[in-house]
Amino acid sequence: MATIAKVGKKGEVVLKKPERDIAGIKPGDKVIIIGRPGEIIIRKIPSLEELLRKPPKIKLTIEELKKLREEVRKEIEERLLK
Questions:
Q1: Calpha distance 64→81 (Å, rounded)
Q2: Measured at the alpha carbon of residue 16, what is the angle toward residues 44 and 40, in degrees to the nearest 5?
Q3: 3-class secondary structure, 33
Q4: CB within 8 A of 5, min separation 6: which ones?
Q5: pLDDT in the model for residue 33
Q6: DSSP 3-state assignment of 31?
Q7: Are the beta carbons of 32 and 43 closer than 8 angstroms?
Q8: Residue 20 CB neighbour total at 10 angstroms
């Protein structure tokens, strides 16, 4: 979806409701603004609650998780002993 917006005197641009809805942006949400030559990209920064509600992208068995935890523990021990 694309719409035309006007830049105000102070440089502000108001996002229309359809664009906010598509991006999932609500009042009070934080966004990151990426400036590139000739364009500006606005991306929503998900809140901690939103991140915790999402299912993990990696599926691990209990055994794989235990092995990974042990590897991380050993690496931390090694770094602390140096």
A1: 26
A2: 50
A3: strand
A4: 13, 14, 15, 16
A5: 94
A6: strand
A7: yes
A8: 15
pTM, two decimals, is 0.57
Q: Quick one: how far is CA 11 from the chain centroid?
A: 25
Distance in angstroms (rounded) separating the CA atoms of residues 45 and 51: 10
Which amino acid is residue 66, in one-letter code?
K
Higher pLDDT, residue 15 or 52: 15
Burial 38-76 (b: 16+ CB within 10 A, else e): eeeeeeeeeeeeeeeeeeeeeeeeeeeeeeeeeeeeeee
Residue scoring higher pLDDT (63 or 1): 63
